[in-house]
Amino acid sequence: MTHDSGSFLTRVNPSVKLTAHLLIMMFLMTIGDPGTSALLWLLSLIIGVALGGWTWQYIKRRILPYLGFFVLVFWMLAAFGKGEAVLWQFAWFRITEEGVYHGLVIAFRMLGFVTYGLLFTSTTDTTQLVMSLIQQYKLSPKWGYGLMAGMRFIPLFESELKQMKAAHKIRGFHTQGKLKAFARYTLPLFAQGIRKAERVAVAMEARGFNGSRKRTYYHTPIVANLDYLYCTFLFLAVLVITFSSYLFGWFTWVWDS
Amino acid sequence: MNWKMREIVLAVVLSIACGVLYLGWSTLWLPISALVGPVGAEFMFGVWVVASPLVAFIVRKPGAALIAEVAAAAVEVFTGSHFGLSSLLIGILQGLGAEIAFFMFRYKKYSVPVLMLSGVLAAIGSMVYSLLANGFAYYTTGVLLATFGLRVISGAILGGLLAKIIAESLAKTGILSSYEMMKQRRHHGGDPYDSASGV
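Predict the joint structure of the above. Result:
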């Protein structure tokens, strides 16, 4: 699912990138003010443009639609959050100052999650990710290759779902509700999956795959200087942002807000 | 704790099938939540934790519940979704919750109450994520309790009970005969297809 194979971020080790981004997301969870959260979100956008090869077209298509999501999250907390200082009351909605403040924190945090997540998925090849998990995180090859075999099933399952819908339609079968239709497609999907899984496992073993660590690899991702460079830059940038927001008097931990 | 290759591939493929269903379920969830509000739509939550009890019930090995939910969440990473990394974090917490249920019974009991308990604990795991990441602590106590209650009930029914129903229906087709669930049944004798469940 790589977006631009030439960008700096596509060359960063997938395990390193995954760990670094998850750490930033966990750090975002500890921040309780909208200013810092917004700045950390902006950082992910800047990294995307500078190191991830994101173009304006890409941002317009993949990130701007999430501003609607931003509004939804904000509205949920603003209208249903707890607080004393009521700004506006209408029917069962009770908008408070605290609700608006918390709404902004969480909405920027969600945007941050979306862009740091996209920063990872748009610049990581999934096969490389699994190979790197085998090398860097010592994932057993049994599970690694099992996972890669499973990955191939995703498009298959998606097209099978479509096919089943079409097959029902052409035979003039109409379900009463969407929920019932959903149940009708589930079992054939699972049954097909189990049959295919069995065949894949047999095929792997028939070709001598025994899942031991003593084997050769076509790709062996390593952790190189580039990875240290990216992590240093990322964590330093987060530190600078956090410290400046502290100087502005914005910074609040989530447990203090 | 020695997994056979066929069990690994089965666990991964079933979890990934669940992951693909989760994506479809999300598109169903959106219009419903727009209609009745996110709290009202919580009744749909359980389907998102079905992978853990389903895979654990069939494979019956330590770690199966955790691996299943993480692998199902990984579908969002593999398809390059925006929610890839967030769903990975949720998957880990839900999977851990579901795993605890089977651990509590030393991986020996796979009855309906245990499966439902795993759905409930998975729901609690997801609540932990919602509190930490989605700011659920900022909601009024009433909204929070309603969300939590609906999620737990839905986790037990649409997660645990549904997993049992799916597994029994699959067992009837005979494709599960070489897996632990059916092996144990043959070992204990009696009707291997559990016609009492009447699905």
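Chain A touches chain B through 64 residues (CB under 8 Å).
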